[in-house]
């Protein structure tokens, strides 16, 4: 009898363990699907035929599996933007950094490990510019048994900003690569896949958010645009920011938002105005001189429920900053603060063991007989510390893990090769030409890093939304002009800086971040303007294994796509 009870107890434990490992599986089928926008129809690459793609709902600390089937005609990878994937870079997704692409007809099961993230993140393609239509929301609810650090909203609504081209996106990409010029700007911005009433053939399908007077709504904003930072506002309504990039913030009431490509922002909207119809609107922030941008405005409609005669037309927001208002962009972003309460503490690295200073620039390469379509017959490029990144022939993670020589160099410079007045006008032309390279920065496990991004005026300059994979970071400082290593650190916020994974380096300015390199693996750092990433504004960190099994990279899955 004792043996039977012992066996039964053992069996219950085994069955319970198996039950606990019954992970949720999702299926992503990559395929071409016809969509009609702006009076014409074209096939676009989608997940499960949806644009935007399906939202993933998880709880903090969950692990899920996503089976990706590529039934399209092009190579593809999928990235889980802002998900740290502790010790498991194999599912991160950037092409030729952590995997080779999933080829047409291929499949790859990606294990997605959530850890400290809570709030809104998103997933998107990380090959060429396919993320223009291959993207969707990730909603990370509080761990079961816990709750939001704000009153429970009446409803939660994802708001995804995007771009739409009448051309096929691969044609836009190929033309930019072939000519060396800036890509054609988009024909429309979108809100949840719809351009809105200000575009032709678009009014009937305009996104509508229906609300009850007096109730509060949690809007989960995602900027999936390929090329542009956006300003966003709702007519006659303020919103309260409560989170960004999967981390909570102190409440920040604002009449407008600035949101960079790759960034997510959670806001509370109180339906506290007169019952009516109101426009929500988004348009580009683009202050770089001479850089073409889509000068149109996408709209949705905030529609109060009830019996009333709505204004015609609805009110447009009158508080959207002008397209080149750098101060408005910087002012909003620099106002964000981490929640920093007992349930959501901050842990800003104080004793820095690695200082990095990365100069990020728009550049040019010369072409034979000035035959390219960039400035003065050159080919446009970008760089980090004067190195314009070149994709390797196999992914860096596979080469690092498998000790394959000759794929990447390990001597990425901590500081730029040239020191000059980065934000001066009329800089010498020789500074515009970088070097090609495939180099990584090696970090020991648990290194505490301070990284200062410095923008330049080279080739006119630009803002740069920089995104780090595998880690979130504290944004401890930001400013216009050249970074002053003696004065600017005195103004750092080391008490409650926002905890982010994507941050804009302002035009002719700098941004300082701090993070702890405690996630072993290969992790991509790049500008989230896709044209800048394609031109070379990217690099990779290799975080080495630490002591003990729990500080080592986990083994790869058996179905990694072949190179």
Automatic annotation (TrEMBL):
It is an enzyme of class 1 (oxidoreductase). GO terms for cellular component: apoplast. It is found in: Secreted, Extracellular space, Apoplast. Its EC number is 1.10.3.2. It holds the Pfam family Cu-oxidase_2. Residues 1-22 form the signal peptide. This is Laccase. It comes from Quercus rubra (Northern red oak).
């Amino acid at each position: 009898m004792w043996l039977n009870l012992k066996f039964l107890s053992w069996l219950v434990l085994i069955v319970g363990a198996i039950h606990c490992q019954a992970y949720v599986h999702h299926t992503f089928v990559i395929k071409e699907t016809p969509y009609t926008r702006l009076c014409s129809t074209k096939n676009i690459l989608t997940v499960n035929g949806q644009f935007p793609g399906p939202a993933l709902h998880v709880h903090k600390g969950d692990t899920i599996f996503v089976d990706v089937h590529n039934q399209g005609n092009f190579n593809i990878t999928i990235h889980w933007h802002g998900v740290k994937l502790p010790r498991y870079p194999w599912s991160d997704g950037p092409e030729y950094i952590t995997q080779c692409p999933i080829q047409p007809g291929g499949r790859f099961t990606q294990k997605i490990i959530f850890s400290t993230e809570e709030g809104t993140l998103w997933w998107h393609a990380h090959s060429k510019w396919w993320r223009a239509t291959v993207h969707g929301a990730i909603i990370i609810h509080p761990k079961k048994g816990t709750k939001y650090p704000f009153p429970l909203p009446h409803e939660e609504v994802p708001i995804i900003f995007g771009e739409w081209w009448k051309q096929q996106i691969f044609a836009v990409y190929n033309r930019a690569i072939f000519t060396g010029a800036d890509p054609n700007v988009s024909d429309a911005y979108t809100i949840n896949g719809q351009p809105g009433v200000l575009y032709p053939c678009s009014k009937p399908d305009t996104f509508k958010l229906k609300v009850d007077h007096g109730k509060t709504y949690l809007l989960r904003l995602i900027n999936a645009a390929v090329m542009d930072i956006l300003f966003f506002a709702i007519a006659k309504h303020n919103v309260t920011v409560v989170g960004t990039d999967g981390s909570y913030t102190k409440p920040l009431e604002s009449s407008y938002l600035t949101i960079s490509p790759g960034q997510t922002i959670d806001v509370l909207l109180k339906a506290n105005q007169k019952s009516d119809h109101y426009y929500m609107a988004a348009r580009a922030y683009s202050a770089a001189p001479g850089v073409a941008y889509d000068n149109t405005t996408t709209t949705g409609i905030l529609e109060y429920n009830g019996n009333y005669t709505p204004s015609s037309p609805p009110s447009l927001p009158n508080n959207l900053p002008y397209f080149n208002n750098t101060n408005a962009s910087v002012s909003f972003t620099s106002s964000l603060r981490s929640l920093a309460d007992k349930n959501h503490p901050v842990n800003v690295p104080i004793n820095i063991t690695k200082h990095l200073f990365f100069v990020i620039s728009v550049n040019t390469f010369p072409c034979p007989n000035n035959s390219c379509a960039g400035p003065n017959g050159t080919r446009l490029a970008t760089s980090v510390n004067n190195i314009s990144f070149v994709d390797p022939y196999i992914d860096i993670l596979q080469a690092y893990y498998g000790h394959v020589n000759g794929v990447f160099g390990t001597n990425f410079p901590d500081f730029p090769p040239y020191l000059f007045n980065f934000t001066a006008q009329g800089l010498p032309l020789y500074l515009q030409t970088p070097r090609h390279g495939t180099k990584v920065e090696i970090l020991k496990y648990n290194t505490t890093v301070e990284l200062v991004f410095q923008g330049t005026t080279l080739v006119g300059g630009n803002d740069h939304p920089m995104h780090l994979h595998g880690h979130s970071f504290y944004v401890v400082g930001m400013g216009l002009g050249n970074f002053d290593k003696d004065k600017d650190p005195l103004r750092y916020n080391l008490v409650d800086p926002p905890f982010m994974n994507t941050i804009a380096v302002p035009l002719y300015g700098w941004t300082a971040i701090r993070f702890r390199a405690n996630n072993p693996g290969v992790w991509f750092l790049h500008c989230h303007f896709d044209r800048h990433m394609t031109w070379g504004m990217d690099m990779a960190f290799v975080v080495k294994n630490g002591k003990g099994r729990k500080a080592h990279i986990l083994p790869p899955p058996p179905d990694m796509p072949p190179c």
